[in-house]
Amino acid sequence: MARAPAIPQPERSANRIASLHPIFIYALIFTAIFALHAPLLRLPYFWDEAGYYVPAARDVLLTHSLIPHSTLTVAHPPLVLVWLAIWWKCSGFTAAVTRTAMLFIAALCLTGTFRLASKVANLQVAIASTIALALYPVFFAQSSMAHLDMAAAAFTIWALCYYFEDRAGLTTLMFSVAVLCKETAIVAPLALGVWELGWRAFGRNARSEFAPGRRPLLRTMALALSPVLVAMAWYSFHYVKTGYIFGNPEFFSYNVGSTLHPLRIALAFVKRLWQLVGYMNLFVLTFAALAAMLLPAQPLSERTLRPRISLRVQAGMATVIAAYVITLSLLGGAVLARYMLPVVPLVIILCVSTLWRRVRHWAIAVAVTSAAFVAGLFINPPYAFALEDNLAYRDYVLLHKGAANFVDKRFAQARVLTGWPATDELSRPFLGYTKSAIPVVSIENFSATHLLAAARDTSLYDVVLIFSTKYEASHDLLAALPGFEKLQERFFGFHRDLPPDVAAQLLSGRIVYRDARRGQWVAVIELERPENAVLESPVFAKMDGNQ
Q1: Coil, strand, or helix at residue 502?
Q2: Fewest CB atoms within 10 Å of the CB: 3, 20, 327, 380?
Q3: What are the residues whose beta carbons fall under 8 Å from the beta carbon of 319, sequence distance 6 or more?
């Protein structure tokens, strides 16, 4: 009898994965990340959560309307907002419920990453990639936050799983659901459609290892255009309800109209590349993979080498990654790292697979990478970064919670001058910062220009809540570059907040509350007025105590 051919390692790994039910893998992943995030689940809402997403989802809960009315509509698709509203309806309107609901989506993204890596590589790469992604600071921080990008990433990764398995119907469905989570998810199916059509029209060698699979033209068109039709249906509905296609004019101008300067595009492109290869200690993994490319492939057995991810799959992943970098360099006012979440898992899978193939003790390299990611959660980088990209957001929330409690107890009826999102934190008790709504007067930011303008008429407010709107590194490496700060001011809205002492002097007030955490600070300034002086006098204090 002829001996059966040896089963290659990737196929053996695939068979082992097939023996594990996907629900079991999902439950295991959710349990792990829920335990890791347990200390963060009761934190009040942070920044964009408080400023838009939670109020918008609350409107869905209270009015059953897909168009928010308590905040400006920005035309984002409604699926994540509906998801949160359902959870609140069933389990209660609390921050812990919100963050648990988002962890279910993060677990879905990690499960999709595990499945994708196991299909295109092997079980070892899948496990290592999933662990590394879960610990990556940006992914970890976003896992429990009420933003849209994690959901878009989850369904995009699952769409890519089915795409490389050549399951056209499920691929189109997942991409369409991803677009209902966030409109930028349309980038991946369009990129793959262009890739397939480009090879069909211009590819000289259709049998090239880099060529996409030969699919019927109608399937390619359905892949690319079905999510477009879904997006068009949503925007048509939004236009009928609001009169705007892409949100209010200010939002559209910020994210599209003001981003198309060539120099701004070039700077955004550099930032996007950094977010893919180096941001938040990701360089430890990408540099290790790059160095591993200089090494020969390790033996899998006596006669075979460890296989690579097929070049066709690598080309498809690279197409989606490049499309995201280019598109999000052209569009989007804030160059936030969370916008790149749909393609970060692809970068991690490719790098881990390279280490597995070419480094004998590859697991050590992945362990070092994971340790670097954990360090990145707690240790802020030596340059300005978005607070939502590691546990700095926790510092922000605790600082603002403490200041809001102080204002609530001592100045509950006072008019508070502050900037967004603290205006919402004080005036909307459901966000978790105050017990009752506090009157607020809004200021754009705490730069010298805007505080000088506020100082001209102090009759409008009684107290000032001032805070750092960004992380301030003690030695910012990028700020030392010639012209860097001016470019940031011109294209990305950069400004410098006045320190509390300077602000208090400018506003003729005194600091009555101050706190700081790892490069962030908050302060409450009481204006020096005759009536305040009487209230704080020893005589009044004694009379008040006798009462």
Answers
A1: helix
A2: 3
A3: 191, 192, 194, 195
Provide the H-helix boundaries in 136-261: 137-142, 149-164, 168-181, 187-202, 217-242, 249-252
Q: Facing residues of 524 across strands? A: 465, 513
Rounded CA-CA distance 517/153 in Å is 31
| DSSP codes joined into one string, 179-190 | HHH-GGGGHHHH
Q: How many helices (H) and strands (E) does the chain have?
A: 25, 5
With tokens 């009752």, the residue in question is: 436
Q: How far is CA 448 from CA 375, 479, 506, in A?
A: 35, 19, 9
Alpha-carbon distance of 373 to 284, in angstroms, equals: 9
Cα 429 to Cα 517: distance, rounded to the nearest angstrom: 24
Q: Which of helix, strand or coil describes residue 126?
A: helix
Q: Is the pLDDT of residue 235 over 50?
A: yes
For residue range 23-37, list pLDDT tens digits in order: 999 999 999 999 999
pLDDT at 15: 52
Q: Is 265 helix (H, G, I), strand (E, B) or coil?
A: helix
Predicted TM-score of the model (pTM): 0.91
Q: Where are the domains of the chain?
A: 9-379, 389-546
**β-pair partners for 521:** 516
Please check whether the domain covering 389-546 is classified as CATH 3.40.50.
yes
Q: Which of 301, 341, 299, 334 is nearest to 320 (CA)?
A: 341
pLDDT tens digit string along 38-82?
A: 999 999 999 999 999 999 999 999 999 999 999 888 889 999 999
Question: For residues 432 and 440, what is the distance between their CA atoms, to the nearest angstrom?
Answer: 16
CB atoms inside a 10 Å sphere around CB 152: 31
CB 235 within 8 A of CB 245: yes
Contact 222, 192 (CB under 8 A): no
Residue 434 sits at φ, ψ, to 5 deg, of -130, 165
Question: If 0-12 CB within 10 Å is exposed, 13-18 middle and 19+ buried, where does residue 96 land?
Answer: middle
Q: Is the pLDDT of residue 539 over 50?
A: no
Q: State both tokens at 109.
A: 């993204």
Q: Do 244 and 256 contact (CB within 8 A), yes or no? A: no
Q: In one letter, which amino acid is 388?
A: E
- Please state the rounded mean pLDDT for residues 9-21: 54
Q: Could you count the other beta carbons within 10 Å of the beta carbon of residue 506?
A: 15
CA–CA distance, 127 with 116 (Å, rounded to integer): 11
Task: State the residue for tokens 């989802």.
Answer: 57
In the numeric block, the tokens 């496990």 are attached to 127
**Chain centroid to CA 104: how far?**
16
Instruction: Please report the pLDDT score of residue 547 as a whole number.
Output: 33
Tokens at 170, concatenated: 């499920």
Could you report the per-residue pLDDT of 135-156, keeping only the tens digit for each?
A: 999 999 999 999 999 999 999 9
Find the helix packing angle between 344-358 and 262-277, rounded to 10°.
50
